[in-house]
Design brief:
Length: 348
């Protein structure tokens, strides 16, 4: 890579701050001037990057005609930055893969925190999806949580049961922590009722970029859109008057802050969500200026690359730590899942 490309790559990784000399012009015109010396970056590629959110303004997806103001920050997704380092980007199948962690039935059983006639509580590891993919099976690593549940109960003679164990709520594939599995229909009905009546007390832990305040309440509404870049749904902050707006209420508490030699200030925070919106914690944290470390959708690509390179961590550092509700006998019960090693090593 030429020194010219290397200099621009470093600039894109940290983001470009608009100055008085570069303000008061359209975003696309500024980018056309910026990339004019780089023939590998075409105008079509620039427009596509803006449209798909690979290029964002102040951490938000905007129209290419958006006017720039002084102190605006333009950020670039790592997939776009890679275009500068390789004219013919590596095909997907040849890209370095995540370090695979093998999970077997014995490991699954070791992660069971509690079990009775109506429910199973497990500390899900990161990298395991709740539902199986089209080709999911236990010979692949990692399989889905449902694959393990099915094999676990089959090994105990419950394979012929009419009711299939069902997860009461979902965690993202790269989010670790507590998952409650209903073993009976009445158990599932009870858990769903607890969720509907807001009788669930759930606490997450996450590591975010920056020094988080002692306490912060976030209440901005959000809505779901289709992210063309990742080919799946994502949430964005929206105006309360938006007909698709969903209320969201998140409270974060600073548990411990430290400065990492490479990543700089980081904070382990405890998060309580009063509503259960998709990606709620990740969206609110990013909007507040404290993105979840390792989050490839809402986080900071430059930090995620350094996290992978220096700590070999390739997932969003978000963990469902505590879960409390009233059981079918009217007793208040609580479960707790210890943090995984990656989070404990980063902020001991």
């Amino acid at each position: 890579m030429s020194s010219k490309n290397n200099a621009l790559t470093n600039q894109l990784q940290s983001g470009i701050t608009i100055t008085a000399n570069t303000a008061n012009q359209r975003l696309d015109r500024f980018l056309r001037k910026l990339f004019r010396p780089y023939p590998d970056i075409s105008l079509v590629m620039i427009f596509k990057a803006i449209r798909t959110g690979q290029i964002k303004l102040n951490s938000k997806k905007v129209d290419q005609s958006k006017s720039l103001k002084e102190e605006d920050l333009i950020t670039f997704h790592e997939s776009f930055i890679d275009l500068l380092t390789n004219k013919n980007p590596v095909k997907k199948e040849n890209k370095p893969k995540k370090e695979s962690t093998s999970y077997d039935l014995a490991d699954f059983q070791s992660r069971i925190i509690s079990e009775d006639d109506n429910r199973l509580v497990i500390n899900k590891p990161a990298g395991i999806s709740i539902h199986p993919g089209q080709t999911s099976n236990l010979s692949q690593s990692p399989a889905s949580l449902y694959d393990f549940i099915k094999q676990y109960y089959s090994s105990r003679g419950f394979a012929g049961s009419m009711f299939q164990p069902n997860v009461a709520y979902r965690l993202d594939k790269e989010t670790s922590g507590l998952v409650i599995v209903a073993k009976t229909y009445t158990g599932l009905q009870h858990l769903n009722e607890q969720i509907r009546e807001h009788n669930i007390d759930k606490m997450y832990y996450t590591i975010v970029v920056g020094t988080f305040p002692k306490q912060l309440t976030m209440t901005k509404p959000m809505k779901k859109i289709v992210d063309k870049q990742f080919g799946r749904g994502k949430m964005i902050i929206t105006n309360p008057s938006d007909p698709d707006a969903q209320t969201a209420h998140t409270i974060g508490y600073n548990e411990k802050s430290r400065s990492d030699p490479v990543l700089g200030p980081l904070t382990l925070i405890k998060v309580k969500i009063m509503t259960g919106r998709m990606h709620q914690i990740r969206v609110h944290m990013a909007d507040a200026g404290y993105p979840v470390l390792g989050d490839i959708v809402y986080g900071l690509p430059s930090y995620n690359r350094r996290l992978q390179k220096t700590h070999n961590i390739l997932r969003q550092l978000l963990h469902c730590r505590c879960y409390s509700f009233t059981d079918m006998k009217g007793k208040q019960i609580s479960f707790e899942a210890p943090l995984l090693t990656d989070m404990k090593k980063l902020i001991p």
